[in-house]
Structure formats: structure tokens, C-alpha cells
Write a structure and sequence with these properties.
The chain is built from no helices and 11 strands. It is mainly beta. The strands form 2 sheets. Strands 2, 4, 5, 6, 9, 10 and 11 form a 7-stranded mixed β-sheet that branches. A hairpin with a 5-residue loop joins strand 5 (46-51) and strand 6.
């Protein structure tokens, strides 16, 4: 069984910083992409940032220059450093990974996995 667990959310004032972490665990053989999405109240879930196994990254325009995504492949972990936070960044942040794992019979399977989310609240 594979799971993603996020941490690092919380309440911060506008202009402040937070660092989110997401750890993937289970019978993981390899991880392709890891990324962060967010969903604000009444809005659809949107991509924030995503990184490939090779290290390339892409960001949604609204966070460019403020957020940085990086990953530690050895630890199956992805981070999101969020600086200069704005009230409009308030949302539940979800970790996502596209990975290959070993099923109970030892066969490789590809899977997209979501974490349960961590709440980020930015006060004005």
C-alpha cells in the first residue's frame, strides 16, 4: 500500500513563510512526478508546482518567484517553500505523486496518489 503524508501547514500572516513537506511511503519502486496542488473554498483544485524525477519544475503563474519546489529522491520526499505569502494563497494544499509500486504479488503497477491535504491560512 502506498500513501502520501503532508505536514507543515498552519496559520501565518501575510508576507510570512511556510515550508510544506510530503513523504511517500510503501512498496515504491520509483517516483515520476511529485507536486503540490491547492483548493481554496468554493474553487477547483489547481496545480501549484510540480517536479519531475530529473529535477525540472513548473509553477503556476501566481506563485512564480515566491514558491520553490524541491525533492529528495532518496527520501521519497517533496517540499514546497512558500515565501511572501498572500491571503489568496489560503487553501488546503495537497501532495500528488505519479509512481510505480510493487503490488502484493510482486508485479509493478503505476499509480497516481494523493495525500489528505494540509491547511494553509494566510491572514491579512
Amino acid at each position: 500500500q502506498v500513501q502520501l503524508v503532508e505536514s507543515g501547514g498552519g496559520l501565518v500572516q501575510a508576507g510570512g513563510s511556510l515550508r510544506l513537506s510530503c513523504i511517500a511511503s510503501g512498496s515504491i519502486l520509483s517516483i515520476n512526478t511529485m507536486g503540490w496542488y491547492r483548493q481554496a473554498p468554493g474553487k477547483q483544485r489547481e496545480l501549484v508546482a510540480r517536479t519531475s524525477s530529473g529535477g525540472s519544475a513548473n509553477y503556476t503563474d501566481s506563485v512564480k518567484g515566491r514558491f520553490t519546489i524541491d525533492r529528495d529522491n532518496a527520501k521519497n520526499t517533496v517540499y514546497l517553500q512558500m515565501n511572501s505569502l498572500k491571503p489568496e494563497d489560503t487553501a488546503v494544499y495537497y501532495c500528488n505523486a505519479v509512481l510505480r509500486y510493487s503490488d502484493p504479488w510482486g508485479s509493478p503497477r503505476d499509480l497516481g496518489v494523493w495525500g489528505r491535504g494540509t491547511l494553509v491560512t494566510v491572514s491579512s
